[in-house]
Design goal:
Elements lengths: L9 H52 L31 E7 L4 E7 L11 E5 L4 E4 L7 H4 L1
Antiparallel strand pairs: 1-2, 2-3, 3-4
Length: 146
């Protein structure tokens, strides 16, 4: 009489683990890269929104502002763009404004885990709609980031 043993051998389990490990080693860097790219959309959306806020500010006060988050107590021009924070919604980018009587530049700089995105470290837009982007080395990478 033959006895049949059901189950997997140790070799089969080890081979399966090796295959899963190889797949994970290939997939994880790609996943992280896609995650960073999706976070860039948050920065570009926020910059366009702030550009609209700058134009509304200009139509009220005939000047642009450098104040992004509204101070605790303010009135009129002192409130700036009246944002609640100088960071993007999920705080992956720090938002700054440089405004004067005739122009402004809005910049989103990578913050927190997004600083590992060396491809698009800063994104900017100015009062005439010119968009710029630089990588960690300071090179212009607008086509890749916007």
């Amino acid at each position: 009489m033959k006895i049949y043993v059901k189950g997997f051998t140790v070799i089969e389990v080890v081979v399966a683990m090796v295959i899963v490990s190889i797949l994970a080693a290939i997939a994880y860097p790609s996943y992280v890269s896609q995650l960073r790219k999706s976070r860039r959309a948050e920065a570009t959306t926020q910059l366009v929104s702030l550009a609209q806020a700058q134009e509304r500010f200009f139509s009220r006060y005939r000047t642009y502002t450098s104040v992004v988050p509204a101070p605790a107590s303010c009135a009129g021009q002192a409130c700036g763009l009246e944002e609640s924070s100088s960071y993007s919604e999920n705080e992956y980018y720090e938002l700054t404004a440089d405004g004067n009587a005739t122009s402004y530049t809005l910049t989103a700089t990578a913050n927190g885990p997004q600083t590992e995105d060396t491809d698009c470290r800063t994104l900017s837009i100015n009062s005439v709609g010119v968009k710029t982007a630089t990588n960690a080395a300071g090179q212009d990478v607008i086509d890749q980031c916007w």
